[in-house]
């Protein structure tokens, strides 16, 4: 990605400065061919951690600039376990079924090992669909246009709050209601047939993907709920630049603002400044 200048050239947003607009995920046409022609699959080297470590690599980059915090937490957790297991017992190393599932579920446009083992040619690309595939959930059975309910035969669990996508459609939905027969359920097991509300008409036997696993995300969020204590020192003197020092015990950041002018009406109070500074939103501070 460090050699890609496409976003910079066509939109002025440099991927090398953290501002990639992801033009490779858009549709393009070459002659009669149309699709996501520049969209590569996602790199996954989990099964080859041993080869990377044996090559002398001691630092791994996890792509997460436009991903959820839970994605970063989940992927880092899996790779940390894989690295530790390989270093402890190289001959016994393998990626577990659960770890493979987590990596697929968190985000995938299908996986590739890139150019690590030669030129993969067209196998590098994911030209039909540029978004998260997730994991296989099941297949559609039928669609009732009157009630706007789609019937799905499940091959994996489904819960309220899960996200699903059908076929290669651009948009997906969040599951708000699950019907098993005439009863409302909060979850359904593999092998069952459920009905869920869907505004778009779909055909029989279309593939359904689970693109968001509410249970997995909740577990990752719960395991990453710690807060980092910080101290803030705010300085404002007439005729000088505003100053704010933030210290978390290991790192210090200083920010400067405009020159402070005398108040025209009511001066800003110490309490009102403190009230604004403690508004940290959902950050882990």
UniProtKB/TrEMBL annotation:
Residues 208-285 form the Peptidase U32 collagenase domain. InterPro entries: Pept_U32_collagenase (IPR020988), Peptidase_U32 (IPR001539), RNA/ubiquinone_mod_enzymes (IPR051454). PANTHER family: 23S RRNA 5-HYDROXYCYTIDINE C2501 SYNTHASE, PEPTIDASE U32 FAMILY. This is Peptidase family protein U32. It comes from Candidatus Methanoperedens nitratireducens.
